[in-house]
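Escalation from tier 1.

The customer reports that the assembly of two entities below gives different structure tokens on two consecutive runs. Tier 1 could not reproduce it. I'm attaching the input and our single run for tier 2 to review.
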Amino acid sequence: MFIPRLSAKPMFPIVFLNGKYLDKSVATLHVSDLSILRGFGIFDYFRFMAGKPRFLADHLDRFYTSAELMGMDCPIDREELAAVVHTLIDRNDVPAGGIRFVMTGGYSENGYQPTAPNLLAVAYPFKPAPAEQFQAGCRVLLHQYERQLPRVKTTDYIEGIRLLPELKRRNADYPLYVDRDDQVRESDRSNFFIVRDGVLITPIDDILLGVTRKHLLRLAHELGIPTEERAVSKAELLAADEAILASSTKGAMPIAQINGQAIGDGNPGPMTHRLMEAWPAYGAALIAS
Amino acid sequence: MFIPRLSAKPMFPIVFLNGKYLDKSVATLHVSDLSILRGFGIFDYFRFMAGKPRFLADHLDRFYTSAELMGMDCPIDREELAAVVHTLIDRNDVPAGGIRFVMTGGYSENGYQPTAPNLLAVAYPFKPAPAEQFQAGCRVLLHQYERQLPRVKTTDYIEGIRLLPELKRRNADYPLYVDRDDQVRESDRSNFFIVRDGVLITPIDDILLGVTRKHLLRLAHELGIPTEERAVSKAELLAADEAILASSTKGAMPIAQINGQAIGDGNPGPMTHRLMEAWPAYGAALIAS
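Tier 1 run:
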């Protein structure tokens, strides 16, 4: 068997795979798995803090919705999967990190027909984005692309990964996908918002419905900030007062530049600052008991 | 480690994985592989007969082209990979079957950045499509979908696999993908041709350039059949005299029905028969020495 080049001592050595808790070094899938042969899989990812998962109910909702839209049956139910999360946190005995669920099409003898899914849950250390991206804002690159099955958190990140060298070459941190009608949809692993005349605006159609997106809208509501969920064109994005990326790993992150052009005055704006400042306490109040 | 529910005694027990020849039962990838986490991988597939691979040079060309377009470096060169094919055939000691190469984004500690690819080659028994589909023709279902990176043989078959239950429900054998401009592109694992007024026509843009497609065009040329490579609209397909699916596993297969509507008189037509009859000898003459 081939052992990957992981750190010598992983911080979270215990993973869940198909009903068992295993040492990460021996957590493998047979090469007949449909994720390997056919890219057929879904996942979800969330953070845990103080030993408790954040927004767990939302992530479970989305994971089971993804499964349904893919025609997959999760081998364990929602309560059992929640219990896996708590067991993983307990057994790994580290208070904070991230957890990923992955469910694949299973071991397929003919290499195409799905079988009983393989279900995996892995805990990771949480590595925040570079502080500079929060302080000065990040740089994004517009790229024409439409995620297939945008409502499903599939494991398909072919385009995002393929773009990594181009992002580097063009001094950008993240892509922002624009569809054929010049509507801006989402980043590879984040949603986005703009601020225009004091209103916080984010797309709703043809995107992954991010959990951070949902809670940033709620937080805005609590703060008395007006919001709109509707399409945002490339032109409107480029003329916005502020722009923000949103994800579980980022929370709210200011966008400073788009294709090298400054958004607003090129510095994180006042509404972005309000959301960034209120976000940690908002999230901490919603970790699962 | 989890052992998949494979047949007790696989017909081809030896697989190649990262430079080693292993028993299939222990051929696994660690769960940090980017095919599992992010669907990031390419592959190729071809048949071998009388102990020799068919159209091997074409498949090697395409595999290395796929790698280049994905920004991946194959860990071994073309001659070494060809040697793997011959070794796999020898060690498995069965004269005929199919071989699949798979190359993934590798074991990634952060779950996104590609590392050294994992390279796999597996031999399988060859199971032809049902004889009825060759005799009476197959039934296809039109479906709006555009493969991402159509020139790359990625492992992304999310849509084709997700469609399997719908194909069954609608009495269809295969999908046929139609783009937003009503041009018919390709099937999930096959190219397609139509026959109109004695001309064999097949798309060339925005499709996977199939090896069987290429050789059926050459065979047609040898047989004196005029050919065209150009876009085919849905309307033109439905009005065609004959329609054909083409793939390594199928060779040329007549299409009898599209969305329940007969093509031509609903029976395999004369040009399809000519190609089907000439195909085995054409292919046999081009197995690698």
